[in-house]
């Protein structure tokens, strides 16, 4: 299976890069390669630009689905066409579009997440989202405004081969594939993101991107691309983590760890949404409580990057210390660092109408760090 | 694993749940409370961890839980994204004012309802977890047109006879009302299954 996927995705990656060069650099045509279809990149570029002008659209916006469609066409033309299927149609009521999930090699999907590495470089926002989503659950989602691709999900969670559409039905609607679903990037609480791991690992060692690049024998651009989610290849991530003294292990849980939740909290705080930041913190609490023993400990092991707010940094450490301490687990060193303690007493300041808790209602690990949060804020009703 | 759900996730999840239940030939009456009910029916809200459902009637919890688990598997969600834990918490008012239910989906075999805004406010006032429930209480006070602490106390006792508002709930309501007239939240978008 890994060999099959590596072969497919190396090919896809090459094709995307070739097309990008054609699109950006003006090469006359993307030539036939490996049994795949010939496409005239220059004429497509003109077509895209004309189409964009005629519809008042952005050419790069139109180019994005074209590239996706090109990938699908090449899968269809390849020897591996039968290993792919379009799956799980969802029709959001608020958009006249069809969300289509393309699962690669569905049968092997549960085992292949670490193998499905793409390098789209700077192919644009859409691919970043696609890549981010792919990192999350090893799948694609495409959106078409008008083309329906026959699909069905069986009650057992599998897919019906009779209904699974081949990409050829999709390629006939090349210009109707309008955009990649705009909300692919949301819900990142649920995304154990390789970029988050690299960045958090680097920050925990107080390394600059240049220093990490030197240790990993890569260029600084590789570090930057990885931290921005543009290079999630296993080899790169592994080398960068290795350069920071980390190593990837698998753990028997799908729940997000403290480092991943901290990235979400930071994102919400940056957006000025403390309500959602608190919900993310509560989510970490629920994740920790749901696991036991070493697995709970693993969720708190990696040092999270700073949220840029000392109160929330301290709250993260307090929560991990509280929940790991409940099980008598050793605490990771980061929860005891000075930056995880406040000088005075502060609240999370989520809502101005929140009352201040008496010390008796504050969990010890929070009180110790100066974060005055109510114990039952972390309890389900 | 995606363990937080926003409104679109909830609607998509319920849509697939309906399809799963139909495919299995199940009859189900599902009643939702909590954050999911608020987000679906009453106002924009941050993500929710799960959908709090009362016991399925008609039909059985096991069939709905099994169908929900299949939906979860497809999306890599928490298998308990729709659960019945809230029924153990004794949070639903049962002794006082009857809880009204608003039907958001109805077919011959499957019905989905959400609790009235009044019942949800009563439950939120009972929970009154700072940070977690405060914004919901503010929005619901506005929707239920409660403008004074006295009205809030009477309202609460209507659902929970013999119980008074917890001092912390009093503090929250007082602080909210002290800011002046409350602005009604914009209704969320339509629900289409």
Give a short account of the largest sheet of chain A.
3 strands, antiparallel
User: Average pLDDT value of chain B?
Assistant: 92
pLDDT < 50 stretches of chain B: none
Number of helices of chain B: 7
Strand order of the largest sheet of chain B: 3-2-1-5-4
Lateral strand order in the biggest sheet of chain A: 1-2-3
Mean pLDDT of chain A: 66
Per-chain topology:
The complex is a heterodimer of chains A (381) and B (193).
Chain A: H1 2-25, H2 41-55, H3 59-77, E1 84-90, E2 98-104, H4 125-137, E3 139-144, H5 167-171, H6 194-204, H7 209-216, H8 220-227, H9 234-243, H10 258-270, H11 274-290, H12 294-299, H13 310-326, H14 364-369
Antiparallel strand pairs in A: 1-2, 2-3
Helix pairs in contact in A: 1-3, 6-9, 7-8, 7-9, 10-11, 11-13
Chain B: H1 7-23, E1 28-33, H2 34-41, E2 51-53, H3 61-75, E3 82-83, E4 101-106, E5 110-115, H4 117-127, H5 134-143, H6 149-159, H7 167-177
Parallel strand pairs in B: 1-5, 2-3
Antiparallel strand pairs in B: 1-2, 4-5
Report on this model:
The complex is a heterodimer of chains A (381) and B (193). With 381 residues, chain A is mainly α. Chain A is 45% helix and 5% strand. Chain A contains 14 helices and three strands. In chain A, strands 1-2-3 form a three-stranded antiparallel beta sheet. The longest helix of chain A is centred in the first third of the chain and has 24 residues, at 2-25. In chain A, 44% of the residues are buried. By secondary structure, chain B is an alpha/beta fold. Chain B has a five-stranded mixed beta sheet. In chain B, helix 3 links the parallel strand 2 (51-53) and strand 3. In chain B, helix 1 (7-23) packs across helix 3 and helix 4 (117-127) packs antiparallel against helix 5. Chain B starts with 6 loop residues before the first helix and ends in a 16-residue tail after the last helix.
